[in-house]
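Lab channel / #folding
Pinned by the channel admin:
"Please post every new chain as: sequence first, then the structure tokens as a reply. Keep commentary short and put observations after the output so the thread stays searchable."

First post following the new format, from NK:
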Amino acid sequence: MACSILASTLSLLTLLFSHVTSARAASNSTQCPSDPYQDPRNDPCDPLGYIANNALTAVAFGFVLLIALVQTYRIIFNGAKWMLSMVIGEYSKFQSFAFYVIGFGFRFAVHYNPDSLGIYIAEYLMIVLSPCFFIAANYVLLGRLAREIDCAHHVLLPVRRMTLIFVMSDVTTFVIQAAGASMTTSSVYSSALTGRHIFLAGLVLQLISVLSFCIIYVRFLYKVHAEEKAVWMRDSKQHWNSDWRTLAAAFAVSCICILIRSCYRVAELAQGANGSLSASETAFYLGDTLPLCVAIVMYVPFWPGRFIPAKLAPSYVNELQDGQELSVPRSTLVYNHEVPTMPDGY
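Reply from TO:
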């Protein structure tokens, strides 16, 4: 699923750049100032409305790249490959470049080329659409957590169906946003305005989806706390870093941060290109970058693979039950937290 989304993204980027090139060639009527740094707020050729701060860009670039590297390590050595969509959101699997990170990389280029619409589009599209991957990872995590503590019946919808519904909604809103973003680059005002409305619709639908998911998650936690006391206190005697409720809390913080970011993006686009949010770099970092960084950094110390061990394959369990010896690397047993049952007589 995530690979398909990435393929769609790359295809959309190709089409987007082609569209921008043709639009520029068709209309060169806009007169750009000789010095784009003099008054970026009133520069008709500067889509950002300000000059990107390289120091802030460097901090964001380095921080997100570090998170991506650590999470890559976590997947390799601590499991939870089903969190791959989050890491893919930080990395491009096809080109081995950072996906979300490369969006910040383009902000360096925007700083030196503030009037370049093509560079701005690449930066904007990658930064705006990358969170779709982070959201998808959270959608999958709820089902995994519910099954791990044997409380899937407390989820409002059947776990498999719920995961499918929310992941598909994520993909749908992703496509809507990408389509709208591509249309906003049109030199024809009516087409650009239609694209902005489509983009806003995609963001609103995403916000509704995230909010609905948060409500389902809160209800799930309440049900487990109220009706499954033994499960709720299952890990109470263990260190807090091994308690499933710690992961649940990190999960909640991640969801809240994504919800905050979604609200910011809807408000920003609703104000229009000349709104105070769109033209403020401070608002961008506080409303978009900071919440997303917190949302994904939560899984660095509290990696789900540590709390939700991978299950052994049924064939392996059957062989153990039959008393047959199976050669398995020791690391597999450690990371899966599985210890084979000794045969009777030992």
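NK: The radius of gyration is 23 Å.
TO: also worth noting, The first helix runs from residue 2 to 26.
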